[in-house]
Amino acid sequence: MPEISRFLGIVIYMYFNEHNPPHFHAEYNEFKASISIENLGLIEGNEFGS
């Protein structure tokens, strides 16, 4: 998976030509999320405090 950024233990990934809507993946330890670029909304994963 192409890594875009790594900071404070969080790793940001993005694939070229992946399914819509445009999004990126974030991983922190065992936590994973897909986040929409358009509105920074959560596509898949858990919200903080859940």
Describe the fold and architecture:
0% of the residues lie in helices and 48% in strands. By secondary structure, the protein is mainly beta. It has one domain (3-44). Strands 1-2-3-4-5 form a five-stranded antiparallel β-sheet, with no helix packed on it. The radius of gyration is 11 Å and the shape is globular.
> Mean pLDDT score, rounded?
89
The helix tally amounts to 0
Determine Rg (CA atoms, Å). Answer: 11 Å
Give the strand order of the largest sheet, numbering strands 1, 2, ... along the chain: 1-2-3-4-5
Give the biggest beta sheet: 5 strands, antiparallel
Helix content: under 10%
Question: How many beta strands in the DSSP annotation?
Answer: 5
Which blocks of ≥5 consecutive residues have pLDDT under 50? none
* N-to-C span: 27 Å
Would you list the SSEs in sequence order as H and E? EEEEE
Shape: globular
How does the helix and strand content classify structurally?
mainly beta
Count of separate structural domains:
1
Q: How would you summarize what this structure contains?
A:
0% of the residues lie in helices and 48% in strands. By secondary structure, the protein is mainly beta. It has one domain.
Features of this protein?
50 residues; mainly beta; five-stranded antiparallel sheet; 0% helix
Question: What does the secondary structure layout of this molecule look like, with pairings?
Answer:
Elements: E1 3-7, E2 10-13, E3 23-28, E4 31-36, E5 42-44
Antiparallel strand pairs: 1-2, 2-3, 3-4, 4-5
